[in-house]
UniProtKB/TrEMBL annotation:
It comes from Crocosphaera chwakensis CCY0110. This is 4-hydroxythreonine-4-phosphate dehydrogenase. Pathway: Cofactor biosynthesis; pyridoxine 5'-phosphate biosynthesis; pyridoxine 5'-phosphate from D-erythrose 4-phosphate: step 4/5. Substrate binds at residues 141, 311, 320, 329. InterPro entries: PdxA, PdxA_fam.
Length: 367
């Protein structure tokens, strides 16, 4: 049996960045952190601007929703000058909010690399606001990787079905690049790198020793034998055959046509929850798993190929996690939602899931 001392030592300390302060970030943080179950397994320190959390608190107080009191939160407070504060208006992301969100992330990374935190949960930022503020990164993922001095990393989405408890894991081979650059960016080397990262993550972080991974084709019908695109025939299929021989303990399936690839995961996600007798409300229906032996992970070749199905099935429940870093990083699957910022209607479900997953994965690493 473990002593309470060793359990205490294994309790992860996570940084939670406020994201873009003009977004729903402050609101979902105040909503999530009122839930005591979140801090049962980890300690959380918010990295942001306390006065802006106060503003959100005041703004939403009259809605009668449960909110954490900003003064009660463990925080690294990054005060902003009055002129910047005036420029930060809910729903209006701009250079000022972009600069603040970049500072929150940088601070979280610095403290984590120094050992103060074992993981980072990031609220959403807007890449366009970073650009306006002069930060030219495709997203938070690349900043994390650069500052951690890592060049082998991946963007993995993880979602646990509320209907069946099945876990959907989707790794993107390419991420934030224009569609017309996907084909030339994909190479056998890149695919091997992403596959290796995914297998390591499944085995080490999720304790799946012999994972089953499904890999998508690129073109309609996976190229239809060269008639609808040649990448599959030219190199993706030969690459897959080599990968199969390199990983005899891993079941690699593919190249599955990108449209049909999502039929089985959707069945595993929904189960028969919408059959007679079931209400469709996951909190009332009994979990049922109808798909036998669904895959442990899906490797999609580009952003929308992977994220359209993830968001259709799991929006607000899935988590974006960066794999390959020396620490855990998770984030909600949604963005800044400027259209609803300040309105009090943002859901905190994905942020809570991101905090819970970060705590779980960090504990796994600390064992
Ligand atoms: N983790 C991150 O930092 C992410 C950042 N983004 C950034 O967010 C910005 C906006 O992206 P969009 O494509 O518009 O996606 P979005 O996720 O911000 O919004 C899409 C729709 O979902 C709604 N929505 C999003 N989150 C919600 C929540 N928690 N509760 C209730 N409704 C919610 C929004 O109101 C909107 O109608 C972009 O600048 C993008 O770069 C996008 C995805 C992830
Ligand atoms: N579509 C996912 C996304 O935009 C998240 O990006 P990042 O800021 O976590 O790199």
């Amino acid at each position: 049996m473990q002593s309470s001392d060793s359990l205490q030592r294994q309790r992860p300390h996570l940084a939670l960045t406020m994201g873009d302060p003009a977004s729903i970030g402050p609101e979902i943080i105040l909503k999530a952190l009122v839930d005591p179950s979140l801090t049962q397994t980890c300690d959380l320190t918010v990295i942001g601007t306390r006065s802006l959390l106060h503003q959100t608190y005041q703004q939403l107080y009259s809605t009668g929703q449960s909110l954490a009191d900003p003064d009660s939160l463990s925080m690294i407070d990054i005060p902003l000058d009055l002129q910047t504060i005036r420029q930060i208006i809910p729903g209006c992301g701009n250079a000022a909010s972009g600069k603040a969100s970049f500072m929150y992330l940088e601070t979280a990374i610095t403290h984590t690399l120094e050992g103060k935190f074992q993981g980072i949960v990031t609220a959403p930022i807007a890449k366009s606001c970073w650009k306006s503020a002069g930060y030219h990164y495709p997203g938070q993922t690349e900043v994390l990787a650069q500052k951690a001095k890592v060049n082998r990393f991946g963007m993995l989405f993880v979602g646990r079905s509320p209907y069946t408890d099945w876990t959907l894991r989707t790794l993107l081979a390419t991420t934030h690049i224009p569609l017309n650059q996907v084909s030339q960016t994909l190479t056998p080397e890149l695919m091997s790198l992403k596959l290796e990262l995914l297998i390591n993550c499944l085995q080490q972080d999720f304790a799946i020793n012999n994972p089953k991974i499904v890999i998508s084709g690129l073109n309609p019908h996976s190229g239809e034998n060269g008639q609808l695109g040649t990448e599959e025939k030219d190199w993706l299929l030969p690459w897959l055959e080599i990968a199969k021989s390199e990983y005899p303990d891993v079941e690699l399936l593919g190249l599955v046509p990108p449209d049909t690839m999502w039929v089985k995961p959707a069945k595993a996600w929904y189960g028969n929850s919408l059959k007679v007798g079931q209400t469709g409300d996951p909190s009332r229906d009994q979990p049922t798993l109808t798909m036998k032996n669904p895959a442990d992970a899906y490797l999609a070749l580009y952003h929308d190929q992977g994220l359209i199905p993830v968001k259709l099935m799991a929006f607000d429940q899935a988590i974006n996690t960066t794999i390959g870093l020396p620490f855990i990083r998770t984030s909600p699957d949604h963005g800044t939602a400027f259209d609803i910022a300040g309105k009090g209607i943002a859901r905190d479900t994905s942020l809570k899931a991101a905090i819970n997953l970060a705590a779980e994965l960090t504990q796994q690493k600390l064992k």
